[in-house]
Amino acid sequence: MSNLAIKLLQLYLPLVGGVVLGWLIGGVLPKDVPAALGKFLFWVGVPISIVAFVRHADLSGPIWIAPLVAWAAILLGAAIAHAFIALQVHRVRLTSPTAVPPLARKPTQGSFLLASMVGNTGYLGYPVILAILGQQYFAWALFYDLLGTMFGAYGLGVVMAARFGKNERNCAHLTRTMLTNPALWSFGLALASRDIPLPAPIEFSLQKAAWMAIALSLVLIGMRLSQLSSWRGLPHVWISLGIKMLLVPLILGYGLQFLGLSGAPRLVIVLQMAMPPAFATLILGETFHLDRDLTVAALAIGSIGFLLMLPIWLWLFGAANG
After folding, report:
1. Contact by Cβ (8 Å): 252, 72
2. How far is 259 from 265, CA to CA, in rounded Å?
């Protein structure tokens, strides 16, 4: 068995196992359990993981490139999606002037744009990067997520959702959510305290708690997927996922070589760019009354599609190809 096959098997067993477990128990547990688990991970689990893993992460090198590429990916995805919307609406109206294409609706446009922009670089990105590349390069994933995706989702994402939705008064609330995100504050704490030695038992417990939180995040993804019931709007879903999970990673992934980035750091960034749409898109969609059917289908299909695409990304951008 090749090294790539072994690596994929080692990754898929816990990754798929955790998601499937969440899917199975999500259908029988009370509906408020996933919400409670999500709050626990948001306030406790993820911050502990960030503190634990940053202590052993390599912060040397041009790590600042990660959030810059994250923003480039967000903006490129938005630009391509916006161009597709304009072309699609124009084409339909040329052939049938009285027709109202689905993408002419503002809520559908908003969901389409968000699904093309923001990926699940936290709950899914963290365990994938840790499983493939270990803690050494975790900081690259962290910088991409916290300084790129989070501000992209609750900054630019809020602006776009408010523009295409119907509930602008919630902008201030979502802005406060971004600024009070415990992951952001724990990231600052981790950077400030990473050189402070801890007693061995505390360090050991911190690492165990961090890995437990990562495992629970996979279970949570399965729970949330088990609660999705709408699969309409599939044609537009495939287009948005093609932009988010295929076109943007390919363009920027190969473009990174012009910045002198290769090997494991480039692989981290490519995998983060290739993540399926974030659950934040569902939160924004529900808050601003966007097209929930499109958002839900993009989350479900994108999560499955990422597992199918992962071997291709490892083959194209693996450290051996750097």
Report:
1. yes
2. 12
**Contact of 160 with 110, CB cutoff 8 Å:** yes
Task: Report the DSSP beta bridge partners of residue 303.
Answer: none
Q: Compute the distance between CA of residue 22 and CA of residue 220 in angstroms, rounded to an integer.
A: 6
Cβ burial, residue 218 (10 Å; 0-12/13-18/19+): buried
CA distance 24 to 225: 10
Instruction: Calculate ∠ Cα 284-88-272, nearest 5°.
Output: 45
Mean pLDDT, rounded, for 60-69: 91
Instruction: Indicate the pTM of the whole model.
Output: 0.86
| CA dist., res. 107 & res. 163, Å (int) | 9
Average pLDDT, the chain: 86
d(CA 45, CA 50) in angstroms, rounded, equals 9
Q: How far apart are CA 222 and CA 238, in angstroms?
A: 21
pLDDT per position as a tens digit, 37-64: 888 888 898 889 889 888 888 888 899 9
Identity of the residue numbered 213: A
- Which residues, at least 6 apart from 89, have a Cβ–Cβ distance to it below 8 Å? 101, 103, 104
Q: Are 275 and 153 in contact (CB under 8 A)?
A: no
**Residue 194: CB atoms within 10 Å:** 14
- How many helices and strands in the chain, by DSSP H and E? 17, 0
